[in-house]
Design goal:
The complex is a heterodimer of chains A (289) and B (244). Chain A has 3 helices and 16 strands. Chain A is α+β, with helices and mostly antiparallel strands and 289 residues long. Chain B has one domain. Chain B has 10 helices and 1 strand, in the order αβααααααααα. The chains are: A alpha+beta (289), B mainly alpha (244). Strand 2 of chain A pairs antiparallel with strand 1 of chain B.
């Protein structure tokens, strides 16, 4: 009975894996939206539950400029203001309710949206792996009876525990610094939650002052300017190098991934450019030690 | 009762085994989830009707997989045991012949019904459960399974040779599968709809639109009647069969 159950679990996992591969062909969804003159409301397109795959999206506005926001599971994945078109690539992690929101510019225009879903569905892959592993564990328990079975089962469960293996970046030493140039930032969220719309451009930099255990002290400089205002901010923040949490004046301040930007690929000075998180701003960075 | 359980266990050991069970589950899971293509991109907000459409189009592969599995299993279960003389040994159990044959069919149903249900439950849990649709798809697949298994049993009892009975069963099931398309091309649209097992899915219209298409009921009745007829003929044939 246990053996049959184990075989069924492994079979379902393999079936799911085959199905995931069969479903991985590129799916293209194209549509055209005509916005009438005087329409300034918002319109949702591609609304529904999106499969957790990579999505390559091309939006072209003909004869006008539109504002567009891409939402997934209540989060903003990308935002484009006053744009005549954009190309973006998003990697969806979960099967979530998503849509692209277009805001009419008031002028008559045509917006063409093309979304290509490609790659394997992540949830199907995870579920198939879970089924196969569960079946293998059951099969092992069937083969190895008694106390030995429970020991092997415990060992397998411990080895499968998805614990986090993290370490502090070895290149983060006193004197290490990074400079970021931000040609275009659409909005700035202040520490008190106020949103100030841009577009802004400016520089962001941090210099490592001290590293003590897991805590590093960074001196952060932020300069942003728009056509009629300038924001200057300078302060010391503390960074937990293990969890990447940032604290300012004793309070959690920034999300885990926002501190360093990409890791340096090699030592020394170098520069590159990137389009991050589906946003249309470009970031240039330089690391130095 | 314990005799029946013992017989089912023996039949499982002789015909099924874990490996065959695994192949059947993997095939049905892969064909069902693989065919539900609409959920591989965007399942639109009002997408349940589209899902039904997708199921209607894509259920062909799970139906075909079920037919092939049933043909293989029942030709193995009946024809192999008849040709090897094992059936005579099984009849040594203090049970009537009819019960033995029905036990074979019952075991197939018990083992394969979860194989039909599991991928559906998985797919529906991924997108939200729609119980009426789940029930209708299960009914369609279960009727197909019953029909394929009873037809193969009947052919196996008639032919007795394992390879020939498997081949004939597959040919018969293939003929039934392609018949709706041929009838439709010949202009017999209504007959094609009634003969197509996928029409059973339109029982869901009772929930979606408040009315049932006539051909959906006709198809359900037809496949139920054919299954009943196959069982009756198989029992008649098996009871009168000279096994010596």
């Amino acid at each position: 009975m246990l053996r049959a159950l184990a075989v069924i679990l492994v079979a379902c996992g393999l079936g799911l894996l085959i199905a995931a591969v069969a479903r991985s062909s590129t799916e293209v969804i194209s549509l055209e939206v005509r916005l009438a003159r005087g329409f300034t409301g918002s319109l949702r397109v591609l609304e529904g539950v999106w499969a957790p795959r990579d999505v390559y999206m091309v939006v072209v506005a003909e004869g006008c400029k539109v504002d567009a926001v891409l939402y997934s599971g209540g989060r903003v994945l990308g935002e484009w203001r006053n744009s005549s078109g954009f190309i973006t690539r998003v990697s969806l992690r979960r099967r979530e309710y998503s849509y692209l929101q277009l805001v009419g510019p008031g002028a008559e225009c045509k917006v063409r949206v093309n979304a290509q879903f490609y790659g394997l569905e992540r949830d199907l892959l995870v579920h198939s792996a879970v089924l196969i592993i569960a079946g293998a564990v059951l099969y092992a328990a069937h083969r190895i009876r008694g106390r030995r079975a429970s020991a092997v089962l415990a060992l397998l469960l411990v080895s499968l525990y998805p614990g986090e293996a993290v370490c502090a970046p070895p290149w983060l030493k006193p004197g290490a610094y990074a400079r970021y140039r931000m040609p275009k930032v659409f909005y700035v969220i202040l520490v008190n939650g106020t949103i100030i719309w841009g577009p802004w451009s400016g520089n962001f930099s941090w210099t490592c002052i001290n590293v003590s255990g897991d805590l590093a002290t960074l001196l952060v400089n932020l300069t942003l300017s728009s056509h009629n205002a300038t924001i200057l901010w300078r302060g010391y923040v503390r960074l937990n190098t293990e969890t990447r949490e940032v604290y300012y004046r004793g309070r959690g301040w920034a999300s885990r991934r926002s501190t360093f930007g990409p890791h340096p690929r090699r030592e020394g000075r170098w520069s590159s450019s990137s389009t991050g998180g589906g946003r249309s701003w470009e970031m240039l960075w330089r690391y130095g030690l | 009762m314990s005799g029946l359980v013992q017989l089912l266990r023996l039949e499982y050991e002789l015909t099924w085994r874990a490996r065959l069970l695994g192949v059947a589950y993997a095939a049905i899971f892969a064909t069902y989830v693989g065919d539900l293509r609409i959920t591989a991109s965007i399942l639109l907000a009002d997408g349940w009707e589209l899902v039904l459409g997708d199921v209607t189009v894509g259920i062909g592969y799970p139906l075909a997989a079920l037919a092939v599995i049933a043909a293989y299993v029942y030709s193995r279960s009946v024809a192999v045991q008849l040709s090897s003389g094992l059936m005579k040994t099984l009849l040594a159990y203090p049970m009537r012949r009819g019960v033995l044959l029905l036990a074979k069919m019952l075991l197939g149903l018990i083992l394969l019904l979860p194989a039909i249900l599991l991928p559906q439950l998985y797919a529906w849990l991924l997108h939200g459960v729609n119980l009426p649709l789940l029930a209708v798809v299960t009914l369609t697949l279960a009727l197909e399974l019953l029909f394929s298994s009873t037809l193969t049993t009947l052919i196996s009892l008639l032919v007795k040779d394992p390879a020939s009975s498997l081949l004939l069963s597959l040919l018969a099931l293939l003929a039934i599968a392609v018949a709706p398309g041929l009838l439709s091309r010949a202009g017999f649209e209504e007959a094609a709809k009634v003969l197509n097992p996928v029409s059973i899915l339109h029982l869901y219209d009772a929930v979606a639109e408040g009315k049932i298409m006539g051909y959906a009921l006709a198809t359900t009745a037809l496949y139920s009647a054919l299954t009943g007829l196959s069982i009756a003929l198989s029992l008649l044939l098996f009871n009168r069969m000279d096994l010596d």
